[in-house]
Design a protein that fits this description.
3 helices, four-stranded antiparallel sheet, alpha+beta, Butyryl-CoA Dehydrogenase, subunit A, domain 3, membrane, 6 strands, Claudin_CS, transmembrane helix
């Protein structure tokens, strides 16, 4: 019984990790640069992500542009893209393996044996 609960908890943590890695990969907020001019009206914020750049002036509107070519990206950005995509692929593969391992242990969760305090064993089927 404890094994099944720990398996389920591990899969839930794995799903949360996969969702977090996917959100982190897609967000344009990997590098944030802010510039404030002589007065507060001239304020610019620039976000650089793995897939796009975003630019915002004085909290008015945001413009985002997807990178045109992979060849013009710096090597550290190319490496970050590759590593994050590998992270997503491996965590998805790990979840598939975890689900396959859980389906084999589901038979132990359907019937639980409970020992009575007087020494008799009761078998209880769960729905």
């Amino acid at each position: 019984m404890i094994q099944g609960v720990s398996d389920l908890a591990a899969v839930c943590v794995g799903i949360l990790g996969l969702l977090g890695a996917a959100a982190t990969t897609g967000m344009p907020m990997w590098k944030v640069t802010a510039f404030i001019g002589e007065n507060i009206i001239v304020m610019e914020t620039r976000w650089e992500g793995l897939w796009m750049n975003c630019f915002r002036q004085a909290n008015i509107r945001m413009q985002c542009k997807v990178y045109d070519s992979l060849l013009f990206l710096p090597p550290e950005l190319q490496a970050s893209r590759g590593l994050m995509c590998c992270s997503l692929a491996l965590s998805g593969l790990g979840l598939c393996v975890a689900f396959a391992g859980m389906s084999g242990s589901s038979s132990s969760l359907t019937v639980a044996s409970i020992e009575h305090p007087h020494g008799t064993e009761l078998s209880q089927a769960k729905a």
